[in-house]
Amino acid sequence: MTEKRSRRISTFGSRITSLISVALVLVLLGLAGLMFVAGRNLTDNVRRNLGFTVKMERECTPDDTNALKRALMADAAVERLTFSSAEDILAQESELLGEDIAALLDGGNPYAAEFDVRVKPLYARTDSMAVLTARYASRPGVSEIVTESAVIEGVDSTLRRVSAVMAVVALVLLVVSVVLINNTISLSIYGRRFVIHTMKLVGATGAFIRRPFLRAGLVNGLIAGVLAAGALVGARFWAVSADAGLADALPWTAVAVIGAGVVLLGMFICVTTAAFATNRYLKASYDEMFLK
């Protein structure tokens, strides 16, 4: 009785250890996914504040200005735009300098109207910006277009480096997770290899022997995935409490998708590993049962 109870406790302990190991690996994969999403969203927020400034000629007509405004508002690449007349710019500059610039110039206004254009994140790239500025540079009344090319190039370069690093990290974590989960499940089935051999001797089919191990792998993967998804939700709560600005970078929709992906991945890896490990002992002879 005592021996049976200790065996039951040992089996339960090994299963708990297996669940925790799989869950921790899935948490690492989920965190890598959350970091990628947060980095992408933060970059998009930076891109939304990038664009170009269209400076109008001082002698441009209201018709030219209105036509350009309509064209910009109808452009699918434009996120938002702000129009400042020559008088608005003169008032702003006078306020900054603390002097009446018009009085210093005998009532003259050295400024011209301009459009401050912010583009959508998809178009906040060097090549897309060049196409956009070329589209409006030749329009009537346009004097020049000033772009934030240095900032855009810096954002593109940083994003490429971060994306490459995150891709490598995700690949390494995926390989490590598969290896660790494979070892964990294989060791669990290794402890029951003689049960598999005995069932073979009494005439049980491979599908009949394999079924409980696959079911156990499916359940283990589901439980481990749910635990990992819960840990990701907790990580999101912690991140937002530490920095409220991360709420937009880590939307609940992304957390839900990554959490569901973690659960499905855990189930898939556990079932696949259980199938391979069980097949190994189904094909093994009695002497090979003593080999690891």
Structure description:
By secondary structure, the protein is an alpha+beta fold. The chain has 2 domains: 2-45 and 155-290, no CATH class; 51-147, Alpha-Beta Plaits. It has 10 helices and 4 strands, in the order H-E-H-E-H-H-E-H-E-H-H-H-H-H. The protein has helices at 2-47, 62-74, 86-97, 101-104, 126-137, 149-190, 193-201, 206-242, 246-249, 252-283, and strands at 51-56, 78-84, 114-119, 142-147. Strands 2-3-1-4 form a 4-stranded antiparallel sheet. Helix 1 packs across helix 8 (206-242) and helix 8 (206-242) packs antiparallel against helix 10 (252-283). The longest helix is centred in the first third of the chain and has 46 residues, at 2-47. The two termini are 30 Å apart.
Fold topology:
Layout: H1 2-47, E1 51-56, H2 62-74, E2 78-84, H3 86-97, H4 101-104, E3 114-119, H5 126-137, E4 142-147, H6 149-190, H7 193-201, H8 206-242, H9 246-249, H10 252-283
Antiparallel strand pairs: 1-3, 1-4, 2-3
Helix pairs in contact: 1-6, 1-8, 1-10, 6-10, 8-10
Task: Characterize the overall form.
Answer: rod-shaped
Total beta strand runs = 4
Strand order of the largest sheet: 2-3-1-4
- Beta-strand content estimate: 5-15%
Oligomeric state as shown: single chain
Q: Average the pLDDT over all residues and give the rounded result.
A: 79
Order of helical and strand elements: HEHEHHEHEHHHHH
Radius of gyration: 32 Å
Low-confidence stretches: 1-10
